[in-house]
Structures are given as structure tokens and as C-alpha cells.
Write a structure and sequence with these properties.
The chain is an alpha+beta fold and 582 residues long. 23% of the residues lie in helices and 31% in strands. The protein has three domains: 2-110, Alpha-Beta Plaits; 129-320, Jelly Rolls; 330-469 and 502-579, Rossmann fold.
Length: 582
């Protein structure tokens, strides 16, 4: 009797899961045996991987396909024959504890596997990509591996790395072309060029050593740094590399093979390696899984002279940099639409996310002397007010709604524009402007805002300026901005933009940045997602993200200021300066 009750409970759970699968994927579950199965109650969103599926299910027969559904708690697999699927269902359903929290999985037959738009693709290559298998022999592989002495190289957080010819700087995603390394590409590599079916002689080499479980995030090698093609030789272990554009194509790179990225595959498709200890791949023979070993890659590139003029403009750092805003009229229109109007719409939500002061800014405010007048230019919700009760605080912001929030908190604020502050000359002892000037769309307007800050400062008064940095990963450390992305906390994140560009007028288009990633372009539109009662809305804020040294140079160009200190603080470039008597 107890056994019948248990069986009834299992059937009831299975029916519930089958209903959920049908609702989420449109797939029809059936009690009639087929060669197709669905794992009803766990999937990619719960941490299930293709490798785990292969590990537990290949023992029952020849797996033909494994399919994870992005963002869903179900997964699908297909055998070559129905008998294998039947055997697997009988042996596993309700018994194999690989669902979330160690619970058993429930299986059902399905009539067919779903068509998933974002499913990974096997069996073809991105345009311009080529793989030459067995490019080197085992003896040649051993000689090349003998060059891998990393003592004089560097250590990335996720791998060992050594550069020859030129150092690739991961903090700026580029090379310093004026500073070649003393050690060029070893002559032991020369035989490789003679073997190539095309003319190519590189002058930069990066050797990476990956332990099992290590990878590299999806990225496009910086256009302005290197020419076309880029070659990568895989040694010691096979690995699967993912190429992404409008779809994800998985490519097996066999040990001792040469990967040639040319044309579209080099310039427009991102490539990366998922950090994991097992790799899964799918070919004509079905689904396979193998354990990764230590892998060493030799990536050969040729330093580009001058900028890039390729036809793949969205990923091209050279050409997006030329999309400058030339007229003040367009700048005014852009800032109204993509800065001022946006902050009015998101003011409440923005304020909820801005409650913890930056420690260095707080320290600046708290050190001000008794009676000092502090002006916060772009004060937002006033999070830097109220921390020093012995000073006079005055704030200004372009947003009416943010100013009202400040007034409700008892702060003295007024609505104003940082380009024309309605304050007397030399009226402030100190000024802070935190995350404001990067919203101005031309160098002239950014300089004008800084000059206004200097104008209202008394001689000897100090200002502290914060702007977003283009480099959100510096010295292999992620900024707070990137760390806020839960999906990427365990990954190294390189720059990315979506495939979307937005026209802002006068023939100027700006790329839409992928949130929580390193910046690829200097002038971008950054999404802000606002969840309403009915639907989520996305607003695009304009940012000019600063290169290293750019803010410092801009401040120095004013003339009558001396820089006290310049530093990098969690994804921001920061300058503290004092006004001189000049």
C-alpha cells in the first residue's frame, strides 16, 4: 500500500513537471516511448551542464544530441534509438539526485526536441575561421612547450601568461606600440611561418597556460592593436572555444591544431573559453565529453601601424572614436535626451541604488575645516551631505526630482547646470563633482564644466572630480560596476557592446554598451533598466568614459590649478586639485 502511495506521489510530481515543461517550451510530453527525453525539473539555470548529462546518460546508449534551454530549469536529450531512451528513463527518473539541492530528476518522453533560438550551434564555423589539424608534430609540440618559462612573464587571475615582441596590456586592452619588449618571438617558432599556406610573419606572441577549469571571457582582439589574421596554436590538450555574434557557435580545437581567425571571425565575432574541467562537443558521431588537461596556447599577431579601417564598425575602437559630436546644438540635444530626461524618469530608482558614499570622497568631505563652504556639483540624492556637521553644504543638480529628494532630506540644493553655475567667483572653499562630467558629450563642454568649478573656488580651495574609467578591470581586479553582475562574478570580463547602434542626429550613431562589462568604446549609451508595475523599461544614458590620464590632462589644461593627487578608484579616474593665484 505504501509503495502504491509513493508511486502515486511520483506520478503527481511528474505530471506537474510535464505541465511546466509544456508551458515554458511548447514541447509535448508523452507516455509513449520515443528516442527523445526531457529532464523536467533541472536545467542550465540550476547549474546543469552538457558534461553532467553525458556523464550520467551515455551508459544507456549512443547520445545523438543534448540541448540546454537558456534560463530554464529543464533540458533535453536524444538517443539514436528508442530502446536506449526507454532504458535511461526507467533507470534514472525519480532516482538520480542531480536536481537542485540534491533532489531527484524526473524524466519524460517528448515527441520532439524544441527549436531554441539561442541554442549553441555545432558543425560549422564562423565566416573567415579556419582550423588546420595536426599543424605540428608531437616532437615539435615538445620543443615549443620547452619555451614556456613563465618566471619572467606575468600571472593573470585565471591563467599564466608571457608576452614576446610587445606586451598586451589587459587594463587598456591594447599594446604600447612605442615600447617593444627586449625579447622578440623565439626563433624556434620560425618553422611555423614556412608551413603556413599564406604569407604571414607576426611580431607579437602571447603564450597562455590554462589549468583545467580555467578559461578566458568572450572578447574581440582590439582592432587598433593587431592586424588580420590572428593565429592560435593549441598545445597539450583539446578545448572547446565559443564564437558569438548573433548566435553561439562551438568549435573544437584539437591538440596541435592551428586556429586562423581572419575577416569577419577576427573582427566581429567574440571568442572565449568557458571555465570548466570537462568539455562537451557534438559532431557527426554524436555527443562526446572529455576531461580537460593543462592547455598551452601560442597566439601570434602582427602589430597594426595606424588605425583600423575595417568594415566591422561596431567592434572597431578606431572608427567609433571618430564618431565625434561636432556641434554644440547636437551635444545639447543628446544630453537633454540621454542624460537630463533619463534622470528625471529614473530619479526614484536611481536614488534607491545610491546610498553608500565612496570612502575617498567621504574622507575629502570630513577633512574640511569648520565653517568651510562645500559645493556638490551634480549632487544627485545628496549622499555626500550630512557627514561633516561643521561645514556649510550647498548642492546643485540638473534633475528637479533628485533636488526634491534632497530637499525632503533637509539639504540646501538648487537646480542648475554644471556648465553655467549661478554662484559668485571664489565663493566655495571646496567642490566635489562625482560621476557628472562624464555625461558631457564633447571635450569642450567637459573643460567648460571644470573651469566653472575652478571659477567658484577660492584661491587655495580644493576640488575632487570623479569620472567613469574606460578600464573597468585594472591590475586584474574588477571594478564595483562589474562585480554587481552576479553572472560574471566568477569570470574575467573583457569589453563588450551589443549589436545595437542608436542614431543621435547629424549622422552620428553611438553603440549601446553591454552592462557590467569593460568598455570597448569611449562614447556609449549605457542601459538603465527600470521595472514598473506592468513591464520593464530601458533608458539609455550617455557616457564619455575616460582613458587613463585623460581627466588629469583636462584639469592641467585649465592653467591655474595644481593637481594634488590623481588616482583610480573602483572603475573611476579621480583627480584632486587646488586653485592657484594665477
Amino acid at each position: 500500500m505504501e509503495s502504491n502511495n509513493s508511486r502515486k506521489k511520483l506520478i503527481k510530481k511528474l505530471r506537474k513537471h510535464q505541465h511546466t515543461v509544456g508551458k515554458e517550451t511548447g514541447v509535448v510530453c508523452t507516455d509513449s516511448p520515443t528516442k527523445n527525453l526531457v529532464i523536467c525539473n533541472t536545467g542550465q539555470i540550476n547549474g546543469l551542464t552538457e558534461e553532467i548529462i553525458v556523464e550520467h546518460f551515455e551508459k544507456y546508449g549512443h547520445l545523438d544530441r543534448v540541448l540546454l534551454v537558456p534560463g530554464k530549469s529543464c533540458a533535453f536529450l536524444s538517443y539514436k534509438d528508442t530502446s536506449s531512451a526507454s532504458e535511461a528513463l526507467e533507470a534514472v527518473s525519480g532516482k538520480l539526485n542531480i536536481a537542485q539541492d540534491g533532489k531527484p530528476i524526473f524524466l519524460s518522453f517528448v515527441e520532439a526536441l524544441p527549436e531554441i533560438r539561442d541554442a549553441k550551434i555545432w558543425g560549422r564555423l564562423p565566416p573567415g575561421l579556419r582550423i588546420i589539424t595536426n599543424f605540428v608534430s608531437e616532437e615539435e609540440e615538445a620543443r615549443l612547450l620547452a619555451l614556456c618559462q613563465f618566471e619572467d612573464g606575468g600571472s593573470m587571475k585565471h591563467r599564466l601568461v608571457k608576452h614576446y615582441g610587445y606586451e598586451f596590456r589587459y587594463d587598456i586592452n591594447n599594446v604600447d606600440k612605442e615600447k617593444p619588449l627586449s625579447e622578440g618571438i623565439p626563433q624556434e617558432c620560425d618553422f611555423l611561418w614556412r608551413r603556413l599556406p599564406f604569407e604571414f610573419r607576426p611580431n607579437q606572441l602571447t603564450i597562455n597556460r590554462y589549468n583545467p577549469g580555467q578559461g578566458i571571457p568572450s572578447h574581440v582582439d582590439t582592432h587598433s592593436a593587431f592586424g588580420d589574421p590572428i593565429l592560435s596554436l593549441s598545445l597539450s590538450s583539446d578545448v572547446v572555444m565559443e564564437f558569438k555574434k548573433d548566435e553561439t557557435i562551438c568549435v573544437l580545437l584539437p591538440r596541435r591544431s592551428l586556429l586562423v581567425m581572419a575577416g569577419e571571425s577576427r573582427y566581429e565575432w567574440t571568442h572565449g573559453i568557458v571555465p570548466r574541467t570537462f568539455d562537451f562537443y557534438n559532431d557527426e558521431g554524436g555527443c562526446h565529453c572529455f576531461k580537460r588537461g593543462v592547455r598551452v596556447s601560442f597566439t601570434f599577431r602582427k602589430i597594426r601601424k595606424g588605425g583600423c579601417n575595417c568594415s566591422y564598425k561596431l567592434q572597431c575602437d578606431s572608427q567609433t572614436a571618430t564618431k565625434i559630436i561636432e556641434s554644440d546644438l547636437l551635444a545639447h540635444k543628446l544630453e537633454n535626451q540621454h542624460v537630463h530626461d533619463v534622470y528625471e524618469d529614473i530619479a526614484g530608482h536611481f536614488s534607491e541604488t545610491r546610498h553608500t558614499p565612496w570612502p575617498n570622497v567621504l574622507n575629502f568631505v570630513q577633512k574640511l575645516e569648520i565653517g568651510a563652504v562645500l559645493v556638490d556639483v551634480g549632487c544627485g540624492n545628496g549622499k555626500y551631505f550630512g557627514h561633516n556637521r561643521q561645514i556649510v553644504e550647498l548642492g546643485t543638480d540638473r534633475s528637479f526630482k533628485l533636488n526634491n529628494l534632497c530637499k525632503h532630506r533637509g539639504f540646501e540644493v538648487f537646480t542648475g547646470n554644471c556648465l553655467n553655475l549661478p554662484l559668485k567667483n571664489s565663493s566655495a572653499d571646496a567642490v566635489i563633482s562625482i560621476a557628472v562630467i562624464h555625461h558631457l558629450s564633447t571635450p569642450e563642454r567637459r573643460l567648460k564644466a571644470l573651469k566653472e568649478i575652478v571659477r567658484i573656488l577660492r584661491i587655495g580651495g580644493e576640488a575632487l572630480i570623479y569620472v567613469w574609467a574606460k578600464q573597468q578591470i585594472k591590475n586584474d581586479e574588477k571594478s564595483t560596476y562589474i562585480k554587481q553582475d552576479r553572472k560574471n562574478r566568477k569570470k574575467e570580463v573583457i569589453g563588450s557592446v551589443t549589436k545595437e547602434e542608436v542614431s543621435v542626429g547629424e549622422g552620428v550613431t553611438l553603440p549601446v554598451h553591454t552592462n557590467r562589462a569593460n568598455f570597448t568604446h569611449s562614447d556609449v549609451l549605457v542601459p538603465w533598466k527600470l521595472k514598473g508595475e506592468e513591464q520593464e523599461r530601458t533608458f539609455l544614458r550617455f557616457y564619455h568614459v575616460f582613458e587613463e590620464g585623460e581627466l588629469e590632462s583636462l584639469c592641467q589644461s585649465i592653467g591655474n590649478v595644481s593637481i594634488v593627487k590623481s588616482y583610480y578608484d573602483q572603475g573611476n579616474y579621480c583627480v584632486q586639485f587646488v586653485k592657484n593665484n594665477k
